Amino acid sequence: MNIRPNRIKQKLAAGENVYVIGGLGSPDEIDQFGTMGFDGAWLEAEHGSVDFADIPDLTRACDLWGMTSILRVNRNVQAIIYRGLDRGVQGIVVPHVNTREEAENVVQGGKFAPVGQRGLYVSRQGFGVPDYFDVANDQILLMVLIEDIVAVRNLDEILKVDHIDVFFVAPSDLAASMGLIGQLAHPEVQKTIDYALARIQEGGRVAGTLARNDNVARYAAAGVRVFLTQPTPWIQAGAKEFLRLGAPPSA
After folding, report:
1. Catalytic residue of the set 47, 96, 163, 186
2. Which of 23, 104, 117, 219 has a beta carbon 3.0–4.6 Å from 224's, enabling a disulfide?
3. How many other CB atoms sit within 10 Å of the CB of residue 35?
């Protein structure tokens, strides 16, 4: 039996864009979005309710649709990173990576030797795979979040770290770190986001960011390759339209 391929890594290797759906909290929700062609599901264990006991069922749902399961952990701790992988996710997102050393720590926790020092354990992705420890590294996706202004200042050094697949610019926390909390449209925030995304690409690495219907085309034209989106705005817009259409005519 061969290891299950990582769809996002395959698409990135082929030079294609990647689309990830976030904000899903149950296997049933993953099933619903699995029919729509998303490449991955972002499982939220930093801000959301996902716990380690939830991961096997969530990742099984992703596996059914060939979607890459990506877990955002809450801390850059090697044991947390590889425990998520041991529970069955195919990708790890680590928040607040601000230095080269912190990026190197992500790799150490996310890859088996000789690349890293992930503890030896066969995850559910390795059941029945006799050469799992030899091939697992190739199918593990590692993503770091560039979400503090200090990370932007250290970006050239962070980009030197090998084995990180995606450098993801997170707009809200970046704005907050600039003293502009909630002001995503502020010119300085937009300038900083655009600079970071461009610098990642100039360094020969893959850039990702949060996108919506009104800006995904602009970011795609700018060379961004990985897009995370949330279904909440779509649900809210649809709900408002439903209520508007059902309202009785004015007297």
Report:
1. 47
2. 219
3. 8
> In angstroms, rounded to a whole number, what is the distance separating the alpha carbons of residues 53 and 64?
19
Domains of the chain: 7-246 (3.20.20.60)
Of 92, 91, 85, the closest CA to residue 124 belongs to: 85
User: CA–CA separation, 6 vs 85, rounded Å?
Assistant: 13
- pLDDT per residue as tens digits for the range 193-215: 999 999 999 999 999 999 999 99
Whether 47 is a known active-site residue: answer yes
Does pTM surpass 0.90? yes
Q: Please check whether residue 25 is in contact with residue 49, taking contact to mean a CB–CB distance below 8 angstroms.
A: yes
What contacts 9, CB < 8 A, 6 or more positions away? 68, 138, 139, 141, 165
Q: Measured in Å, how far apart are the chain's first and last C-alpha atoms?
A: 69
**Closest to 151 measured CA to CA, from 174, 179, 185, 180:** 174
- Residue 211 CB partners (closer than 8 Å, separation 6+): 219, 224, 227, 228, 229
